[in-house]
Amino acid sequence: MQRLGKGELMERTFVMIKPDGVRKQLTGECLRRYEAKGLKIVDLRMDNLSADIARQHYGEHVDKPFFDDLVKHVTSGPVVLMVLEGVGAVAAARKLNGATNPLEADPGSLRGAFALEITENIVHGSDSVDSAKREIGIFFPKQ
Question: Which of 10, 83, 99, 105 has the most other CB atoms within 10 Å of its CB?
Fold first, then answer.
């Protein structure tokens, strides 16, 4: 993180457009919203995740009943992986993404506008600066 004026911190965060978001052709809309907010895309690629990488990424949920469904979903098709940078990038991306449960998400958020269920909720975004560092390290180790 880089400190800017007035206590503002430049951050990096990780975002993944999940297979349902790619299937629904929402990649461009997601990117447009992140950039319109003022977040800079510093790395971006499309990939198909292996089950091993998906398990590593979602490792904190390994003991939860939805873990296997989450891994199965995120490996079901191509995903778009990105690193975003900006002032308060973690919180900014999370606000744009909306609540994890789309039925509780603000209607203008990505999940509120384009999803109906928790597993197929369009995007994943880091929930903290520490998580962002860990997730960026998994998908963009040279960052």
Answer: 83
Give me the number of domains the chain comprises. 1
Alpha-carbon gap, residue 29 to 72, rounded angstroms: 25
Q: What residues contact residue 55 under an 8 Å CB cut-off, 6+ apart? A: 62, 71
More confident residue, 46 or 8: 46
Residue 8 pLDDT more than 80? no
Which is nearest to 136 in space by CA: 91, 90, 78, 69? 90
Q: Any idea what the CATH number is for the domain that residue 126 is in? A: 3.30.70.141
pLDDT tens-digit map of 42-61: 999 999 999 999 999 998 88
Domain carrying residue 130: 2-139
Q: Are 103 and 18 in contact (CB under 8 A)?
A: no
Active-site annotation holds for 124: yes
Alpha carbons within 13 A on the beta-carbon side of 23? 14
Task: Check 57, 61, 73, 124 and give the catalytic one.
Answer: 124
